[in-house]
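This entry is passed on directly below:
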Amino acid sequence: MQKYNISKSSSFYAIGLSYKKADADIRGHFSLDEDSKLSLLKQAKENGIESLVVTSTCNRTEIYGFAQHPFQLIKLLCDNTRGTVEEFQNVAYVYKNKEAISHMFRVGSGLDSQILGDFEIISQLKISAKLSRKHGLLNHFTERLVNAVIQASKRIKTETAISSGATSVSFASVQYIFKNVENVSEKNILLFGTGKIGRNTCENLVKHTKNEHITLINRTKDKAEQVAGKFNLLVKDYANLQEEVSSSDILIVATGAQRPTIDKHIIQTKKPLLILDLSIPKNVNENVQELDNVSLVHLDHLSQITDETLEARKAHIPSAEAIIEEVKAEFNGWLETRKFAPTIKALKHKLSDFASAELNTQRKKNADFNEAQAELISNNIIQKITNHFAHHLKDDDVSTDESLELIKKVFQLEPSTKNV
């Protein structure tokens, strides 16, 4: 990417891992909470990384950024998570320059989501870009790219039906409960943690079950009260967790902790208990399955539940891809102008020098020299000439590199203008 005068570093990379090759356990090793993200950004700044965007969701963890070698970004990820380089190499992907740009478009547009058409990632991308900007780690290229991806995502959402129908992990959770639990409206349901998927599942449960026995518990009680207030639900203290788990028929866990928050020792009931773990990393210890009365279902299993709605969405993939190509072409057009912007700038300076020299000569020759009019005319001519060259360089039928070299040679532009 150096030739586009975007970065001092050599290439733009997308490195990461997703549900496609990494199971929930491995994704958990590379999951980044808010503190880990801040630590990663701080380390990136100290290491001289110029621009970086980090996303970490239940389905993927990715870093988009400039580096001389992708290992710089991989090391940042491994240093700030429980994952190792060896684990990463087994399941990861590394995209460079144009491939990295294309990957961000597909991810942000819901085409690479675990459930096709799930646009949850785009809000993560927005938040991550804001965080990077706040820490001085968002250059003009990356900000422009993120905005282009957001634009494509909006258009796909409004111009296609790829996200139509109620298909999401939260809806799949409710579907699963309906299929496997009788008389759902009469069961005691406990939501532990108020992560976004958990909140959405809670909303779907309230909407579809008319259940009046839903209780919320969160380590930070006021967050639970905010959610509960919206749906008129009961909130209990974190200290009551074991008691509430034991009186529940369905336990939904969405805590976002880095290690399991529920294990078999907390379950003191013998009646059937269905546990849905909607967290990455997993927040329910596998040892709960040693209890005969407990059924454990994880996020990955729920993501595999497909229906006619999901199948219908596939028909809209070509339309979504066409929108991506259109927006990407606009972005690449802007990127191409960055390639010759320094030369046009240098040419304008050179022409201004010519004009200044000529104006000085004319001042000496003419006693009634009209300074303002001469300045206006010369500036207009300079703008017309540089615009003409810029339009020529944008022409698809000409070799931009050859034209740039010719302009530099004819006008004797300094080599140093190459990376202005």
In short: The CA atoms of residues 110 and 117 lie 5 Å apart. The longest strand covers residues 11-18. The radius of gyration is 28 Å. The chain has a mean pLDDT of 86.
